[in-house]
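Support reply, case 0932

Customer input (verbatim):
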Amino acid sequence: MSGRSIEGTRAAWIAIVLVVVSLPHAIEDFAYGEPARLGVAPAFALSALLASYAVQLIGARLVLRGSPWGGRLVAATGFVWFVGALFIHGPEIRAHGLQWRFGLTSVGELLLVVIASALAMWYGAIAAQSVTRTG
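Our regenerated output:
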C-alpha cells in the first residue's frame, strides 16, 4: 500500500469517526437548547450540522480517491469541531466540572469530539500534503 493511500485512509476513517462521536453530542446540544442559547434558530443549526457532516463525508471520499481537497476538507471540518467544542463548552465545563449536563458521560463525549477533531486536523493536513507531493 502506498504512503498516499495510507494517509488518505487514515484521514477518511478519522472523518467518519468524528461523525460518529459528534452525533450523540450534537443531539445532546439540541436537547439542552444550545442553538437557542447561542442565538441560532434550531432549523438553521440542524442545517449547518448536516452540511458539516456532508462536507466531512465528501472529504473522506475525496481523500480516498487521491484528491488533496479531501484532506483539506477533513482538516477544515476538524478545525471547526475543535474550536466550537472548546470555545462553546470549555467555559461551561470549567464552571461545572463533572456536574455538567449528564456528568462524566457528557464530559467524556465532548473529550472524544475534541480528540477526534484534533486527529482530523492532523491526518487531513498530512493527507493533503502527501497527495500534493506525490500527485
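We compared this against your earlier run and they match. Two observations from our side: The helical segments are 3-31, 34-37, 42-64, 68-96, 104-134. Residues 78 and 117 are 4 Å apart (CA to CA). Please reopen the case if you see a mismatch on your end.
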